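Na+/H+ antiporter NhaC-like C-terminal domain-containing protein structure dump, as promised
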Amino acid sequence: MIEFQYKFYSIIIRNCIINIINLDAFFCSNTDGALFISHTVYPMNRKQFQAFIYLLISFLFTSTIAGYANDFKQEHLVLPPAIMKNIETTIQIKGGHSSDFIEPILLINGIKKELDSNENGLFIKYTFSEKTELQLIQQNHIERRDITPIPLWLSILPPLIAILMALITKEVFSSLFIGLLIGTTVIYKYSGIGFFVAIFKGAFAIIDTYLMQALLSHEHLSIIIFSMLIGGMVTLISLNGGMRGIVNILSRYANNRRSGQMITYLMGLLIFFDDYANTLVVGNTMRPVTDKLKISREKLAYLVDSTSAPIAAIAFITTWIGAELSYIQQGIAEIGLDASAYSVFLQSLKYSFYPLLTLLFVPLLIWQKRDFGPMLKAEKQAIQAKPGDFDKKKRSPQIMKELELADDVIPRWFNAAIPVLIVVIGTLAGLIYTGWDVNVWGNSSLNFTTKLSQTIGDADVFNALIWSSLAGVFAALILTTSQRILNLKESIEGLINGFKTMFHAILILSLAWSLALLTDHLHTAEFITGLLTAINISPQFIPALTFVFAAAIAFSTGSSWGTMAIIYPLILPAIWKIGLEAGMNTEEILPLFYNAVSCVLAGSVLGDHCSPISDTTILSSLACSCNHIYHVRTQMPYALLVGSTAVIVGTLPSAFGFPVILSYLLAAGILLAFIRLKGKLI
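structure tokens r here:
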């Protein structure tokens, strides 16, 4: 069917061109089915010259069509998408003739090779170090391939260019796309086609190969559905007054500067499931309260910003968890680790030093009633200010569009509490249900913690998340319509608006999954492993380097999600292989692996906190009506203090075997001492 269409298009193009220009032309097809022309060129006028240009373009188009047609032909030699130099490659042989089957003969540079068999047929493992000729002889079928292996150093170009583009443009989408285009172009160029045709086919391959494979994964689709459902639920419980009801209850207990700051902090912890909702709801609701208590807008913005991403990044049920599990799943699949993504995530939480220490540092500041640096100056100005001195400028209505509460809606706390509790309890129930094993729970030699951990490790986390989030959406929908806060049409529109808020994250995820698949085909992890091994770096330093690298990328791009998308697929396979190269066994590598998993996330959050172009940082400024530059300038010293303490006292020592609990105690002591020594009473 494809070959017929190709010939049909070729005939149309041929006839059109012959009718337009006067050329002695002869069209035919080469052995690959591609169209070419032999002609004598006469002097051409302007119209004929334009037609000749169309002719050249048609050659490019039809050659590309022919290339795709060849891709669909039945081939007996099945090779991986990319053949890398000095990397062992599996050559699969399948197909054959239905009658009088004769075992095929494979010649590599004219030398016959012995074939092994597996469930897919015959195969052979071979390492290509130079240009090689493959020849398969099977009855009357002869298939030849000229293989030019891709130098391994080119495998780093797609992620490296994506990173550099992100640093330069401060934009993640185009950076990921350009990285993908570079990789697909390299693959097609080394397959023996022209450079421009390679770019053309590579651009299409991003969509029809890598993006399609990424989106057709069951796990990836589950993550997309879960993220959309949570986004819809968050929007609906904001529109029905549930979030505002919870905030109103807590705000009653804010009667002085210390209690006002503590209530703001607690609100940030309670609205843990989405960083955007956290920022917008807490900032806008608490601003009048903190103004009355003479708490600076800068301090309010810091409290809001420091309890949004950190808690959303490490909580079990958030809009972040789907992406985190996806990246972790890719890493453990590539290294062949026998563990679920959720169990790896749980194991890595103890190494999340920056998010946890940030959540500890904030109440220490509040308890001590001390500040330092630019924040101290801002707090003093707020105390001395008159009530009318606070900025009363209006907020951008577009920012609050999706979470705006109508004036006639009565805030009720249970409209938010019930759906959220259903999601949390439902997820736990789903994990236990899908991971339940009678033999495990009937084993009296195992304690309860071990049984629960093993059950969650064996559970189908994606089904559990989808079930619980769907139940939460239904609960929010019923609560909203039954109280006639919104009618059914308005509620559905609210859900759809919530789905829209997740499009940004889903698009990043899709491109990231595609780039991860491409780097897997190009064996980028092997290149990084070899590079780090060549410079003889100890595996114990990889988590700390990962933290710093992630923070730098997040600071430059302003996107935690984009940073995780770029770094996770590279670091997780690399640290495992570096550990193996260093002679470590699985039990020794696992703590470093868990540490690296948390460091990508922690570094992303730190860079996000310090970046003036971060979405959550900008939203914090807007929600609190705080000058954005003032917010960045007052928050950065606090974030850098906690970040440096986290990596020096936490990440590095724990990688070398220092007890994690002692690292936290030591870090808490250092932070408290710094507040006492450098901070001034307010």
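The CA atoms of residues 8 and 198 lie 24 Å apart.
lmk if u need the other ones
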